[in-house]
Amino acid sequence: QVQLVESGGGLVQPWESLTLSCVYSGFDFSRYAMSWYRQSQGQALELVASVTSTGTNTGYADSVNGRFTISRDKDTRTVSLQMNNLKPEDTATYFCNAPESIVRLELRNYWGQGTQVTVSS
Question: Are 20 and 83 in contact (CB under 8 A)?
């Protein structure tokens, strides 16, 4: 049974930091790049950050580049997102998953419950 369990969200003030964690199981996610996505109320899903299967290369959306850092640990089956200098526009529900093509073709569009991040003064 595929499981993605995201945690670490919360309510923070602008300029504060949070670290999100995602633990995966039930599927060989280690073969694939992993990403963090986010969705704000009424908005489309947005790709935030990605890390390759080996963990050696990363990529970021322009809106978070320089503030967020993605990493993964295959031993603990965890993908993390360190978020610094948070802004109100970072408010969203954050999800981790494989590339969207894999989600559609091999995971039957499975998504975890996500973790809510709210940035507000």
Answer: yes
Q: What is the dihedral of CA 48, 66, 63, 101, to 10 degrees?
A: -20
Task: Give ∠ CA 84-89-91 in degrees, rounded to 5.
Answer: 80
Q: Among residues of the chain, what percentage have pLDDT more than 90?
A: 96
Residue pair 3/112 in contact by the 8 Å Cβ criterion: yes
Token pair for 88: 């109100």
3-state secondary structure of 85: coil
The answer for residues whose C-beta is within 8 angstroms of residue 114's C-beta and 6 or more apart is: 6, 39, 93, 94, 95
- Sequence-ordered list of residues with C-beta below 8 angstroms from that of 115, at least 6 positions apart, any chain: 6, 7, 8, 9, 20, 93, 94
Sheet holding 46-51, edge to edge: 10-12, 115-119, 92-97, 34-39, 46-51, 58-60
Give the model confidence (pLDDT) of 31-63 as tens digits: 999 999 999 999 999 999 999 999 999 999 999
pLDDT of residue 71: 97
